[in-house]
Amino acid sequence: MNDRTTQTPEPWWKFGHVWLVIAGPCAVVVAGIVTAFIAMSSPDPVLTEDYYRRGVEINKALAQEKAMMPALQGRNHAATPTATPAR
């Protein structure tokens, strides 16, 4: 009789390659569960009713600040002492 026919095959869990193939999807499932837990435990804040108006006010304030920028730079430059060149 042939030796191959008399040997019983090893169970699937004793092969390292099988665990390597199974580890990828298991890691994805665990990461998905962790992500779902984080998403459920800290939900995003709800926007206020006047979010658009507040955004417009912020943009107006930034535009006014940007319009004042040359004057502020000139004032700062005038206050900065200049070094006299060495002779």
What does this structure look like?
With 87 residues, this protein is mainly alpha-helical. It has helices at 3-6, 16-41, 51-67, 69-79. The longest helix has 26 residues, at 16-41. The chain starts with a helix and ends in an 8-residue tail after the last helix. The model has no long low-confidence stretch (mean pLDDT 81).
Properties at a glance:
87 residues; mainly alpha; 4 helices
Order of helices and strands: HHHH
Number of helices: 4
Structural class: mainly alpha
Q: How would you characterize the largest beta sheet?
A: none
The shape is elongated
Tally the beta strands. Answer: 0
Helix content: 55-70%
Low-confidence segments, given as residue ranges, are: none
| DSSP strand content | under 5%
Span between termini: 108 Å
Report Rg. 35 Å
- Average pLDDT score: 81
Short description:
This protein is 67% helix and 0% strand.
Strand-helix topology:
Layout: H1 3-6, H2 16-41, H3 51-67, H4 69-79
